[in-house]
Amino acid sequence: MKFYVTTPIYYVNDVPTVGHAYTTIACDVVARYYRLRGDDVLFTTGTDENALKVVRAAEARGLEPKPFVSQMADDFRREWLGLNIAYDDFIRTTEDRHRRAVQAFFEKLHASGDLYLDKYEGWYCVSDETFFREEELVEGRCPNPECGRKAEWIEEPAYFFRFSNYSDRLLEYIEDNPGFLLPEFRKNEVVNFIRGGLRDACVSRQSSWGIPLPASIPESEGHVIYVWADALINYLTCAGYPDDIARFEQYWPADVHIMAKDIFVRFHATLWPAMLMAAELPLPRCIVAHGWWTQAGEKISKSRGGAIPRPGPVLDAVIAETRCSREAAVDALRYHMLREVPFGLDGEFSVEALLGRYADDLANDLGNLLHRVLPMIARYREGRVPSSCPPDPDLHPAAQSAAAAWETAVETLDFRSGLAAIWSFLRAANRFIDQQAPWALAKSGDQQALDRVLYSAAEAIRIAAVLVAPVMPNTADEIEAQLGLRGWRRSWDQAHEWGLVPAGQQIGRPTPLFPRQDQGGKAAAKAAGSPNTTRSREMPVISIKEFQKIDLRVGEVIGAEAVPGADKLLKLTVDIGDEQRTMVAGVALSYRPEDLVGKKVVVVTNLEPATIRGVRSEGMILAGWVQCDDKSIAIVTHDRSLPKGARVT
Ligand code: ME8
CA 226, CA 203: separation in Å to the nearest integer? Predict the structure, then answer.
């Protein structure tokens, strides 16, 4: 089986951002997964260099376009190397092989009768490299809200592609091929765009920068191919078109083109399939649009100016905060981007959220699993994996269902759900260790049971390495190395199997994969099990029924006084509508009694009464910690007036 996956080719007018990294990481994950399955994968990315905005960016830096684009293409390559992106081909549209492909394709278009010479009179947005109708502009500006730049008026002879001829065929194709455009809601946008009427597309510009129309096309002199028509053809060039037909037949059609929503409707989901239909070439199997990463709600974009998150500085921030290795930071970024938001939707990017994932999912769930099990193998079995045991009845099915969920997730590009399934398996493995308590077995001397638990835990770790490998390749290598399986030939099937860690295997040196920075008071408080710092994940899950057992009501504090001999406590009288209750609250270091009288609070009314410092307390008011100490407690109030006694759910 072959699998061909593509990123868009990125404009080189400016540097790569985390937005570009997102698409590239997603494609890399897909490619790595299919490679693990044993498929013959072609994963391509590259740079779009024949754009007018690229020439202008070069001019602005006082450079000729050629050295400028080379320098920028190198910048993208370096960035992808730094993120462990294992592409098979990096295409630059200024390469000869691409010029040959574009010209061959245009000769085909011309032969099909779908190309004609006319005059373009209309608007052009250089930043978006898009032609617009007068009525599409917003006060003379580009209608793309992310751009909004002044459009330029153009009047020049131009070649047109009979795009309008393809409306019906496109609609029919979309209808007949349900998986062709994803996600489903974007497919409807495409259908509406086509139904709104396709205009013939201007496909040439008068310029000296770009790929010339082939000389075989009449009156081609002075025309270069419009950058979008040129750029889309990169997907054919990488597959071998037109020079290597055997290669082309092996890889084309692409299995999936991945991009963000900005270039989906007008270009990839309509113009591109129509061009392929005209050239009588098969259409890609699937075209997928993901959402945008935003900052303060706006698309992260190099053309926007301001501080743009670039992958390198984001990694530096993670390393500075956690003292992890660069490899671990790379994997944390890759994991975070795919786990944080559903693939089709927008997401707000922040280093804080990334650090949160690092702490919870990586240091806690994955890191802990490894660093509980391996030291126990070191301690109880002198660093050798005990003899194998039959598949654990809980762990093995949990691993298999995580693997199956990931398979579906990659097929439907729902990375978030796939990773959630893998993380349920990791948590199940941690629970297995809690429940089986190998430390207790070691104490009781039940050697057979201890062997079984340690072997099963080692297997869970081995399977975890396979499952996370497409997203976190460094981590997978490191896990295997620590298990003593460095250089192990990994394959996806191994995620479904049991018993592959060789008995007697000498494990490597256990080292924390995702180290934690001691956060002073916070970490100490957590170690002490302080409820205000327990992570939400560590709390037991309760059903809605269980939650409904808690009677939360609005109350008004009508009296407050100190509790003698207790500097943290206040005795409150709270009116909860149909009665008044006495409650003792540990808020005295944050509130004076007079601060509270008249305040509306939220009360747990059906808490078992307790006598605290001689005062019977019948309920509890809700409060939280601003920081981790008793001097900064904030009482929960509400932002619109709720009547006393109102139920809070
Ligand atoms: O459009 N969030 O290049 P481009 C998510 N050359 N993805 C983002 C993003 C963000 N904030 N910012 C960029 C072009 N991307 C053309 C493509 S293809 C034949 C020609 C990603 O440099 C995303 O994949 O503007 C988006 O579609 C692409 O970069 C746009 O890159």
Answer: 5
Handedness of CA 57, 63, 65, 68 (dihedral sign): negative
Cis bond upstream, residue 242 (ω within 30):
yes
Instruction: Report CA(260)–ligand 1 centroid distance (Å).
Output: 6
Q: Is 293 in the pocket of ligand 1 (CB under 6 A)?
A: yes
- Ligand 1 centre to CA of 19 (Å) is 7
For ligand 1, say whether the CB of 8 is within 6 Å of any of its atoms: yes
Over residues 233-282, the pLDDT tens digits come to: 999 999 999 999 999 999 999 999 999 999 999 999 999 999 999 999 99
Residues of the chain with CATH 1.10.730.10: 313-319+350-532
pLDDT at 37 over 50: yes
Closest-CA residue to 45 (of 17, 72, 13, 20) = 20
User: What one-character-per-residue DSSP string does 443-454 give?
Assistant: HHT-HHHHHHHH
CATH topology of domain 544-648: OB fold (Dihydrolipoamide Acetyltransferase, E2P) (2.40.50)
Give me the architecture of the 2-304 domain, per CATH: 3-Layer(aba) Sandwich (3.40)
What is the percentage of the chain residues whose pLDDT exceeds 70?
Answer: 94
pTM of the model: 0.80
pLDDT mean across residues, the chain: 92
Residues forming beta bridges with residue 260, ordered by sequence position? 290
Distance 291 CA to ligand 1 centre (A): 11
The CATH T-level fold of domain 313-319+350-532 is Isoleucyl-tRNA Synthetase; Domain 1 (1.10.730)
Q: Measured from the CB, is residue 231 less than 6 Å from ligand 1?
A: yes
Atom number, ligand 1, closest to the C-alpha of residue 263: 27
Digit-coded pLDDT (tens) for 509-532: 889 999 986 543 343 333 333 344
The tens digit of pLDDT for each residue in 565-579 reads: 888 899 999 999 999
Model pLDDT for residues 359-368, shown as the tens digit of each residue: 999 999 999 9
Task: Specify whether the CB–CB gap between 472 and 338 falls below 8 A.
Answer: no
Instruction: Tell me the two tokens of residue 535.
Output: 């992570």
Distance separating alpha carbons of residues 65 and 13, to the nearest angstrom: 10
CB 322 within 8 A of CB 358: yes
Q: Where are the beta strands (DSSP E) in 505-622?
A: 552-563, 566-575, 580-585, 600-604, 610-612, 615-617, 620-621
What SS3 class is residue 262?
helix
Pick the range with the lowest mean pLDDT from 46-60, 184-198, 606-620, 625-639.
625-639
More confident residue, 194 or 539: 194
Contact 107, 212 (CB under 8 A): no
User: Where in the chain do CATH 2.40.50.140 domains reside?
Assistant: 544-648
CA of 534 to the centre of ligand 1 (A): 40
Contact 312, 82 (CB under 8 A): yes
